[in-house]
Write a structure and sequence with these properties.
It is a single chain. By secondary structure, the chain is of the alpha/beta class. It has 13 helices and ten strands. Strand 1, helix 3 and strand 2 form a beta-alpha-beta unit. The longest helix is centred in the N-terminal third of the chain and has 16 residues. It is globular. The relative contact order is 0.19.
Length: 319
């Protein structure tokens, strides 16, 4: 796994979900998980009383939404839960987990591994989990990964998908004969990275007509893809503009962009076996399509993330 995963996740935290998500993030600390539960300072360092699971989240909207899903799933099994939403970056939340100030945190396996071991390059989800476990603080553990991934992708706009008959079942490899007619947009670094044009050529045999330097899946890239300034772009797989603009995310069967599965990171002694089972049940149900839909409800429809979380859990038979 390259350090791209860590940088991508950090960039996404602050800018890659565009203006609507940035505005939503600013509001979420005061709604969603904090509603009727806990409004204390997330950095106060106060530990659980031993009978309460503290569910934390990083400072971007999707993390807060997933934390709400985790917390409400635990509540449905009779676990007492409080929330510490919108805490900050991984550097902060990892420390709070280690000292027991928070019990559960939504993580992304590839980005977490890049944080713990930037040189690691696992080839499977299972190997990613094993590599993380080898580097984790002894007081922490990972639960089961979800199928849901929020990672870099090659995404084409609707006009391009219609023209070349590309669907959500199509793969990056399906661009091999048409890439010469397409311009792709992404961050400037994408042009020289293995998880970028270099890998697209060496792994999938793609040579694009042109490259346009934009931003890391943010508003510049979103706008260029919408306006057809670029026909393909590096977007995150749960970016709500995919739903809004009817873009098509191409499958990555050779895992060029690594793994970014949603996975609970847990303070071992703070979670019961019933709690473990509840979170593993969430992971068994949550896939990328579902997470994209949930993100879209929050960012495009301005729904309260707690309400979105509860509705999804009920529909999945977990609420």
């Amino acid at each position: 796994m390259t350090s791209k995963a860590a940088r991508s996740r950090s960039i996404k935290s602050y800018s890659a979900t565009a203006v609507a998500l940035a505005a939503t993030t600013a509001l979420l600390a005061g709604c969603g998980s904090s509603k009727g539960d806990n409004s204390s300072n997330p950095l106060d360092g106060g530990k659980s009383d031993g009978n309460t699971v503290v569910v934390g989240s990083n400072n971007f909207a999707e993390s807060i939404l997933i934390a709400d899903i985790y917390g409400e799933a635990l509540k449905a099994k009779g676990v007492k839960v409080t929330y510490k939403p919108n805490i900050g970056s991984r550097e902060t939340t990892y420390g709070l987990l280690k000292n027991g100030s928070i019990t559960v945190l939504p993580e992304y396996n590839g980005a977490l591994l890049a944080y713990l071991d930037p040189k690691a390059a696992p080839k499977t989800v299972e190997a990613t989990t094993a590599a993380i476990e080898a580097k984790l603080d002894s007081k922490l553990t990972l639960l089961d990964p979800a199928a849901a991934q929020d990672k870099d992708s090659v995404t084409v706009n609707k006009a391009t998908a219609d023209k070349y008959k590309l669907t959500s079942a199509s793969s990056i490899a399906d661009l091999k004969d048409i890439a010469k007619d397409l311009t792709i947009g992404a961050s400037p670094e994408f042009q020289t990275r293995q998880q970028g044009l270099v890998g697209l050529k060496s792994v999938y045999g793609l040579e694009f007509k042109g490259f346009k330097a934009l931003d890391a899946g943010g508003p510049l890239t979103q706008a260029a893809l919408k306006k057809n300034t670029v026909q393909a772009a590096d977007l995150f797989t749960t970016d709500a503009t995919i739903t809004k603009e009817k873009h098509v995310v191409l499958q990555d069967p050779k895992n060029l962009f690594g793994f970014e599965n949603v996975q609970p990171l847990v303070y071992k002694s703070g979670l019961s076996s019933a709690g473990v089972a509840a979170l593993n049940a969430v992971s068994a149900k949550l896939d990328t399509k579902s997470l994209l839909d949930l993100d879209s409800q929050v960012t495009l429809e301005n729904k309260d993330p707690l309400d979105v979380a509860k509705a999804w859990l009920k529909s999945a038979g977990l609420g």
